[in-house]
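Hi R.,

Here's the chain you asked about this morning:
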Amino acid sequence: MMGKQAIYESERSVDFQEAVVVSLRERSNRRQRTLDELRSITTRMLQSSLAHRKLRYISPTDCKNLLDGLFTTPHQFVKGRAVLHSIFACGIKHGWCTTNPVDTISRPELHETEILPLAWEQLLALLHTAREPRHSRCMPALGIMLWAGVRPAEVMRLDWADLDWDERVISLQPRHTKTGGCRHITMHSALLTWLSLFSSPSPASGSICPPDWCHRWSRLRKDAGIRHWQQDALRHTFASYHLKRWHDLERLQEEMGHRSAQLLRTRYLSMKGVTRDHAALFWSANFIRRFT
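And here is the predicted structure, written out as tokens:
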């Protein structure tokens, strides 16, 4: 028979809400945007009947009912499942439960929507408009998103000091990136030329994005005549033109920071409207000089 201490240890647990607090505390080093999303999801979870249930006695069915009740789309369900899984993983680490009930809940299949690269006419309009004095402060961020594939949220964290002019690379550190990893992205001649049109020499430090960046960036797109904008459109444009020009999927994967090439193949690489001649122009310094 088990002794009293053994029984106590085997049944030791905390309420779900306490496990949530500890889980969030242990992830407090994450970026603010990630923490805000975690708090938003867990706040909704704590409004359920599970809040005061002991973690050890919450079943897979309880978890499935919680997720089904809170998250109505596959993408939301996957995010919610990941957060709930992390709470029970924290519980296992502290001895508050012995299994993770979320392990038995299948992830729904996600059908990624294809995002097309910018049409050539849209690309030209965007570059011409960015050269107008009222939009010129947007040029560096635009160029880095377009010719380096940096995500919009990442470019907002970049500093001029993160650009290595001697090595011709942009160094993204964990504090910059969506995935929390490092990556080095080549600054090709097209990007270097574009940045030189903005300022020569470029600043040694300071934010890449100007103050009130989100409003400025939205206004630039509208003034360029682009009314319907897809998230990460410039990153997708970079990927498509990169592969069309150099035919090097491994190199592209490394520069975009993907762990596998599968996402590139299924979502990023659309060659619709991307011609060999346009790809050559896209990466040409002489072509960029036409915008002076």
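One quick note: The longest helix spans residues 74-94.

Cheers,
M.
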